[in-house]
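FAQ: What does the model actually see?

It sees only this:
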Amino acid sequence: MCIVIFAWQVDPQYPLLVAANRDEFHHRPAEAARWRGDVLCGLDLVAGGTWLGVSRAGRFATVTNFREPIIEQQPANRSRGMLPLGFLQGEQTPLAYLQTIEAEQQEYGGFNLLVSDGEELLWMNNRGAEPQPVAPGYYALSNGQLYTDWPKARRGRALLQQLVEQRVQQNMGPQATSQRLLDILEDDTLPEDDALPDTGVGLEMERLVAPIFIQAAAYGTRASSAVMQQRDGGFHFAEQRWQAGGAPLAEPQWFA
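And it is asked to produce this:
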């Protein structure tokens, strides 16, 4: 149950700003972000894919799963983590890549996929959303449709917009901005029950996954990523990893 909060073409210095949490069971092994050839990403050690990454060629990709009742989930032949990795390692345009994935989308469990080559940012999912460009603006992509207005999505968009406005006004530097993006991802505000969505997973689960930052013994936020793409295609990238209960696993890692 991940969330990707992002701003596209609204900051004059950074066309793409991303604050993203990967939520997963704590027992599932994963490696921290590092350069793997020309791709900077973390790695899921069960299926071999990634949840978010960038490349030296100025490409960005991330994936989230789709929240739906277990009874409606279909067995998948391929790992969703291979979707962003395939784009980051390839050379296709965002549209061409998503059209390729669209033709084989039923091979995967429910997913949202967001990809950019620095010039375009496109989104699709295999729950009814065909490949489409993302217009300039502030967004929060969680485990529903891109425009699903869950409380955590509204809060994330508002926090990011506030940060961007302050960054531009104060000419905030990249490390300070990256840290502020990571701060957004620690927000554990829990909405009232009557504001929670009903996605068919039960009230207890809706409460657990309602905040931006999820903390529980068995399941929760495992990695927080801050991504800032420059006009020349380069990236500033930061990752904070977490252990069960919400304690930091180590100091944040910084890449530029």
